[in-house]
Amino acid sequence: MGIKAIHDECDYTAALTLIDRLWDAPAGSPESDQLEVIAILIADYERRQHPIDDPVLLPCWSMSWRPAVSPVKISNPALALGHGFLKC
Q: Whole-prediction pTM value?
């Protein structure tokens, strides 16, 4: 697949699919170069089409699309109750 500009949501979805396919490309390979270019194009598209007005809310937004179950084991149960975590 050739690299092309991202003009709409269809192009955006295709680029995200390509990112997923190239994610584990070895550093320095042509695939990793392609991954870097696609990531730049995606970041530009997201900045233009899906701006985040309040940067303080960025952690809340990024946590909102993640699965409810985290693979990370919490060693201190008190932290799981919200002590020290950002409330969104």
A: 0.58
Q: Give the Cα separation of 3 and 36 in Å (integer).
A: 11
The burial class, CB within 10 Å (0-12 / 13-18 / 19+), for 15 is buried
Is the Cα torsion angle 48, 63, 69, 19 positive or negative in sign?
A: positive
DSSP 18-54: HHHHHTTPPTTSHHHHHHHHHHHHHHHHHHHHS--S-
Name residue 55's amino acid: P
Could you tell me which residues come within 8 angstroms of residue 1 by beta carbon, excluding any fewer than 6 positions away?
A: 18
Tens-digit pLDDT profile for residues 27-86: 999 999 999 999 999 999 998 998 777 666 656 655 555 555 555 554 554 554 444 444
